[in-house]
Amino acid sequence: MKHLLFLWSCSILLMVGCGEKSKSKETAQTHKEVAHAGVQMDENDPVKFPVYDYEGLKPLLYKDDGKTYIINFWATWCKPCIEELPYFEKVYEEQKGNNVELVLVSLDMPSMWKTRLEPFVEKKGLKGKVVILDDPKQNEWIPKIDEAWGGGIPATLIYNKNKRSFYERGFTYDELNDELNKFIN
């Protein structure tokens, strides 16, 4: 009798545990689908910026609409990234009349989105479009952005319908302006 009671208890625990695992899998899938769509799913404390996995970000990396795009990969914990951001903002303000768009792709960790990223963007008054890339499969998406990219930041992609260049380094204002002028002149 004790053996049957023990087996019955184990069966119940196993079913409950499996049910919870299944439920958390469904929740994880829902979060992934929502992240793929570019929206952070946390009704209690939503993030101000779109959150993408690589597949969700990919359309921003391949637009063919007559504009030149500056896609900067950065994070609030990256000192060289923070140092160059004012140059990106200044160039963007000066060049947006030339159909230039700036997309700032944050690689901050989820725990930093509300505590560091949002306050930083607000304090600095960033005008470029800020998006979050939250995709743990770095070894898959990094080479899709550029085959030679080792994954270091800051890193920048500049492209339009005629040309595409990737830079795994920081920029000064003059360097960024010089590179951008190769795309708009």
Q: What fold name goes in the CATH topology slot of the largest domain? A: Glutaredoxin
Q: Distance between the terminal alpha carbons, to the nearest Å?
A: 86 Å
Structural class: alpha/beta
Tell how many strands the DSSP assignment holds: 6
Low-confidence blocks of residues: 1-42
Full CATH superfamily name of the largest domain: Glutaredoxin
- The mean pLDDT is 83
Which assembly state applies to the chains in this document?
A: single chain
How many domains, in number, for the residues? 2
Total helix count? Answer: 6
Strand content: 15-25%
Helix content: 40-55%
CATH second-level architecture of the largest domain: 3-Layer(aba) Sandwich
CATH class of the largest domain: Alpha Beta
* Backbone shape: globular
Write out the strand line-up for the largest beta sheet, numbering strands in chain order: 1-4-3-2-5-6
Largest sheet: 6 strands, mixed
* Cα radius of gyration in angstroms: 22 Å
Order of helices and strands: HEHEHEHEHEEH
